[in-house]
Specification:
Elements: E1 9-14, E2 17-22, E3 35-39, H1 42-51, E4 66-67, E5 73-78, E6 84-89
Parallel strand pairs: 3-6
Antiparallel strand pairs: 1-2, 4-5, 5-6
Length: 93
């Protein structure tokens, strides 16, 4: 969608949703802000990230995921620029 107001924003259309990204000269300090995505095969995806030395949070030593009240698992990893990404298992899988 481009940068409609010249504000250093990039807008992406994702079906009926939108993703807005802000372009900055310097990364922001660490924060809890993040994007999230569902992962089809949670175990294989986490194993793949570990194999490729992607930084994963460890809620407990040597455990890279936690559970929600509905029993589904989630994990946090970081891209090469340090952006936090939540990986979510679909409920009931």
């Amino acid at each position: 969608m481009g940068d409609p107001g010249g504000q250093r924003l990039v807008w992406f259309g994702l079906g009926s949703k939108q993703l807005h990204l802000i372009i900055r000269d310097e990364p922001e300090p660490a924060s809890s802000r993040h994007i999230a995505a569902y992962v089809d095969d949670f175990d294989s995806f986490i194993a793949h990230l570990q194999k490729h030395d992607v930084r994963l949070e460890e809620p407990q030593p040597a455990q890279f995921w936690s559970r929600r009240a509905d029993g589904s698992r989630f994990a946090f990893c970081y891209d090469p620029d340090g952006n936090r990404i939540e990986l979510m298992e679909k409920s009931g899988t």
